[in-house]
Amino acid sequence: MLIRPRQRALLAALVAMLFSMPAHALRCGTSIVEEGDLKIEVLQACGEPISREVIGYIDSVRVNDRIRVMKIEELIYQINGNYQSLEFEGNQLVRITRVR
Fold first, then answer.
1. What pLDDT, on the 0 to 100 scale, is given for residue 33?
2. Which positions make up the signal peptide (predicted)?
3. Which of 20, 37, 58, 73 has the most beta carbons within 10 angstroms of its beta carbon?
4. Could you please report the per-residue DSSP string of 65-92?
């Protein structure tokens, strides 16, 4: 059975999708960190960032008349020559963005 060029391209695309990381994930060495991970897990996988900044605060949970305020922190990593911004709300990774 011969595979046509169009079928070959489709098969290659499907295989690439199977082995690619989600857009909300980042490879640090042999580990993968993704949105939802705890800050300690990211630090264990990626080590210390080259930059760490508090960029704001967010009202997160309202319980009766009390509001839980969480810090928004940005950690910058340089991985394979690219800068990656990891944003945490409290202790949870909520956004991974490539910095240009």
1. 95
2. 1-25
3. 37
4. TEEEEEEEEEEEEEETTEEEEEEEETTE
Q: How far is CA 17 from CA 5, 14, 75, in A?
A: 18, 5, 28
d(CA 28, CA 48): 11
Distances (CA, A) of 83 to 46, 60, 76, 77, 86: 13, 28, 7, 6, 10
Only one residue has tokens 């340089």, namely 78
pLDDT, averaged per 10 consecutive residues of the chain (100 residues), comes to: 66 51 76 95 96 91 81 94 94 92
The full set of domains in the chain, from first to last, is 21-99 (3.30.1450)
